[in-house]
Amino acid sequence: MNYWLIKSEPGTYSWTDLEKNKKTIWDGVRNYQARNNLQAMKKGDLALFYHSNVDKAIMGIAKISKEFFQDPTTDDTAWVVVEVQHFKKLKKPVSLDLVKKDKRLAQMVLVKNSRLSVQPVKPEEFDVILELSA
């Protein structure tokens, strides 16, 4: 199993929306590195759901329920989506400030390249996030 982090502005699509809808397609990604990460996702992988801009915090965990396919919001075949489903709400959100302060997460992509909307997470980083959310 691999781990990921997916980012969304809460006004566009929030963790609460995913809790309510149970699943969604992760569309609108228009960055090649983020697209490549979508293509690498496998069914059953877990993704930290991060609210960008407003909260700047990891809110919960989503599960990849369908591997990549053509993004239905565009005719350009370069862009893909995955289907994600609600998996688990964190006991408490993990803020970007908290992530940056934890030395164990100093190499996390969220710290090094915070603008990337779909990013890999190392298993040990995922475990630290879970610890911080307890």
Q: How would you describe the overall organization of this protein?
A:
The chain is an alpha+beta fold and 134 residues long. The chain has five helices and six strands, in the order E-H-E-H-E-E-E-H-H-E-H. The protein has helices at residues 15-21, 32-40, 96-101, 109-112, 123-133; strands at 3-8, 23-25, 46-51, 57-70, 80-95, 118-121. It has a six-stranded mixed sheet with strand order 2-5-4-3-1-6. It starts with a strand and ends with a helix. The model has no long low-confidence stretch (mean pLDDT 97).
* Main β-sheet description: 6 strands, mixed
What form results from the Cα inertia axes? globular
Taken in chain order, the helices and strands follow as EHEHEEEHHEH
Question: What is the spatial order of strands in the main beta sheet?
Answer: 2-5-4-3-1-6
Count every helix, treating DSSP H or I runs of 4 or more residues as helices.
5
Percent of residues in helices: 25-40%
Beta-strand percent range: 35-45%
Point out poorly predicted stretches: none
Annotation, overall tally of beta strands: 6
Distance N terminus to C terminus? 22 Å
- Radius of gyration from the CA trace? 14 Å
Determine the mean pLDDT: 97
Structural class: alpha+beta
